[in-house]
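Lab notebook, bench 4. The sequencing result for the construct came back, and we need a structural model before the next group meeting so we can plan mutations. Quick request posted to the team channel:

Model the 3D structure of this chain.
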Amino acid sequence: MNSVLTALRVFEEVATTQPVGLSELSKRLDVPKSTVQRCLRTLAEAGWLRPSTANTGQWVITGRAFSLGSAMSSGDDLREVALPELNRLQAETGETVHLAVPDGNELVLIERLDSPHQLRAFLALGTRLPLHAASTGKAYLASLPDERIEDFLATELPSLTERTVTEPAALREEIAEIRARGYAVTEQGLHDGIAAVAVALRGRGGTVRGCFSISGPASRLTPDLFADYGAKALAARDAIERRLP
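Done. Here's the predicted structure in token form:
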């Protein structure tokens, strides 16, 4: 735990004083240089910090940190309204529940309610989710007007696993199915070994505010559970949307 707290202190100090170097960080935090260096490397590997291109030997925060801050701010009221129902959904299914908000042609993960199982789905807060591969992304994609869907399908759609759907025709069929049943399903399309069921959340004006998913190991979240979990997700969606502004 101490190492985590130290890394957070390093991140906060860089965010406040950037660009800043190793020696200055060590002095400001009263932490040995070797410890600060390990934290910097860890935070860089995680995508939160990077070496400054203009100031050799100094560090700055990345665009990921900025985008998460923006997404977290825009999703604050959504999270507050959604959390009671999402907590109930997590307890009822025993699987991890993720909440994400739109940011351009991706979603950004702003909340995660972890499964108590040792083997579980896990995505770090701030993870950017591709619309064609993540269950939340597909739920969001299906909520868009056809013109915006076609614009998205005309972009490059990378294959993330052997089961990622990248063919526009196949995605159009999947979008039609999602619209018909109300929820999206992904079987190992984003990560090997992980399955998920997701729905979109709309505000009173009809605009999609975010999406949430029930995610778990494909060995446990099997196709025979999709309809049941989909119904549970839709019930949670309805309860949340009644309270959204």
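The chain has a mean pLDDT of 90.
Will bring this to the meeting.
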